[in-house]
Amino acid sequence: MLKNRTLIGIVLIVAAIGLCFGISPLFNTILASKTTIIRLKQDIPQGVQITGSMLEAVEVGSMNLPADMQNDLKKIIGKYSVTAMFAGDSFNDKKLSDTIDTSDSLLRQLKPNETAMSVTVKSLANGLSGKLQQGDIIQIVSVDEDDKAQIFEELQYVEVLATTSDKGSDNTYNDGEVNANAEDEEEQSLYATVTIILQDRAQALRLAECENTSLHAIFVCRGDEEYKQKCLKAQLDLLTGGADETAEATSEADTEEAQPAMNIPENKNQNNAPAGSEEAAHGA
To answer: 152, 198, 248, 249: which has the fewest Cβ within 10 Å?
Structure first.
């Protein structure tokens, strides 16, 4: 009986030594191990595009980190926040999106000098046969009750913010399904209004005046960010007096009113070249 107690005591002593000098150091090493994670260093609202200046790399303990944590900068920068996020938050794929997918997010992205305004699309043809998408640059043709068409200088180049169906749903965010409405049981829902980004109050006033006319959208470009910015700058220059002086109106009463001259941006991609103002108006 005594020998059994002695044996048990020896086993316990050996186990204690193994625990102290073997398992405990290993456990402490695991606790002390560090890894670098990417996290936010400021609060951001929903729909904000993530930039490098918003992020910081910090060392934290590797224990209990989420398995789906995203630490690849290439997969974070340039994406949009799906929900509001706060300083110290880490990232995963569920928190990030390739596109802005809500009208609230789009409105939050407007610059300080920008406003937004919707106009009615009275027919399929008026709205480019339902093919407009968020980010498109368009020209707006106004056709009055005398069937006189013109493109006002304030509406030479404007950006599409969203298109909205007659049921109030925004339809521009699913690539390949521009006008698809999931609530319509896979039936196509044509948009009833187009929301335009405006750079100046004069544009809003002119667009409001044109609401009582028949408006047609002329497609200018899509996806070419450099050319898009040239178009918007040309429009802003015209609004602020940075473009050439307005062309003189023709003296013939029956001739269409001449369109204002502006610095037309050169587009290397001929598929995105904008139509001339007068030619576009006649073509509408």
So the answer is: 248
